[in-house]
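Forwarding these from the shared drive since the link keeps breaking.
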Amino acid sequence: MKILHIETSSKNCSVAISDGEEILCLCEEVSDNYKQSESLHSFVEWALEGAEISLKDLDAISLGKGPGSYTGLRIGAASAKGFCYGLKLPLIAVNSLDSMVEEFVNQGFELIIPLIDARRMEVYTAFFDGTSGKVIKETEAKILDENSFSELAHKKVLFIGDGAKKAQEILNLPNAEYRFDIYPSAKGLVKKSVEKFNQKDFEDVAYFEPFYLKDFQGIKKVDRVKKNIN
C-alpha cells in the first residue's frame, strides 16, 4: 500500500511517501517561522517525484492530527482532507506525539516522554513505555514547574521535543536525559498508519477535526475609548 503522510503540527513541515512500512521519500524542514503554508504542497510534489509515483497511485492519506500548532494543524488537515476528497482516498489520523517516539524505543529508557512547547511554561505531553513504545499515559496539556514529573526521580527517562529545553532548566531529575531537536515527523507516522490501514481504522473525512487539545488563543482585541478633548 502506498500512503502519503503529512505532519504539520510543529515547526517541522514534514511529508513522506511509504510503500507498506518502507519509506520511499521524505521531505521536511524545521523553521521557526512555521512555513507550512508556503512549503507543504511543494514538499508533497517533491516527495511524489522522489518516490517516482503520482497521486493516482496512492491508497490512503495519513495525517499527524496533533496536538500542536493550531495554524499548522489547520493547514495540514485542510490539505489532507482535500486530497481525500479529490482522490476518493481514506484518511488515517495518528497522534503527533506518537510520531516522535519510535526511534528511541529499546534504547535503555524506562519512559519516553515527548514535550511539545505550547507557549510560556505549558507543554503537550504523554508517557510512552521505553521498551514497547506503547502509550501508558494519555496526551495532556501540562504546566511545568520544579515539581513536575517528581514521581519519576528514580526512573531513567528520556524527554524529547522542543519543550524539553525549558523542562531541563527547572526539573531536578538526576536520571533524565533531554533531546531538544526532536519534532513530530511524517516518517514517524508510517508504522501506525500501516496498522490502521490494515484494520480499516479510517476517519470520517467530512467531520474530522485535528486534536487541538485546547482552544485557540489569539490576540485579544482591545476596545478603544474615544475621549473628548475640550
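-- next protein --
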Amino acid sequence: MVTSTRARFGEFVYKRRRLLNLTQDQVTAAGGPSDAAQTRAENGTGPDPSIETLRKLDVALRWAPGSAARTLDGGSPTPLEALDTDDRSLPSRPLSLGPSEIPLSLDTIIEVLGPHTRINKLSAAHPEVPGLAEAAADLSRVVSKITGAYVTRLLEVNGGPAGPRQPLVEFAFGHLLEEPSTVSDPHEREEALYRRFLYGREEGLDAATRERFWRRWEDTVRLKDTDHPERSGDTEVNA
C-alpha cells in the first residue's frame, strides 16, 4: 500500500531525476542506489528506504546531505545548486577550550572495573552500611558512561554501522547495546541509541535520526583520526 508520505517522497525523487535528465541506470552510475531501490522509492512501494539508500539518493540527485531523509519525514530536499560554496564545505573542527576530553586506554578501563566490582559486592553484602548502596549506584553510573564511551569509540573506528560485527564486543559489552527503554537522561539515551546504530541495530530509529547518527560517525572518524592517528587504541572521555 502506498501512503501519502511515501507517494510525496517518491514524487520528489522522480521529479529531481527527470529535472537532471537522468535515467535510473545513470543515477546508479552516479553513486545512487540500484534500479530496484529507485523504483521502490519513486513508486512508494516496499519498506521505507534504508539510510544507505537515502544517502545514495542525496549523492546521485545532487541534494545536500540529509535531504532525502528529511524529505521522507515530510520536509523538502535542498539542491546543491541552491547552496553557496561555503555552505557545502566540510564542517570545521569545534574550538577546543581546554582539556575537556582525555584519552583513556583499555587497560585503564579494566583497572577501573576491578574496584567497581568489589564495591558493588561490598554494597550487596553490607546493606546496613549507611550511604554505601547509593555510592555504589553512583559509581556504576559513572563507570557505565566510561565503558559506554569506550565501546562507542571502538565501534566508530572499526567501520561504524557498515563495519563487521564482532561477537566479542557483544559478549563483553552486550548490556551497553541494549534498547535504552529505562534511560531517562536525554544525553545518555542519545549515546545508547548511537551505540546501537553503530552496531547495526537501527530498529526504532526514524530516517532523520539515522541520518544524524551517520553524519556524526563520519564527522567523528574524520576529525579524530586525521588529527590524532596515534590514538586509535584509546577512547576519549569527557572530563
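The mean pLDDT is 80. The first strand starts at residue 101 and ends at 105.

- D.
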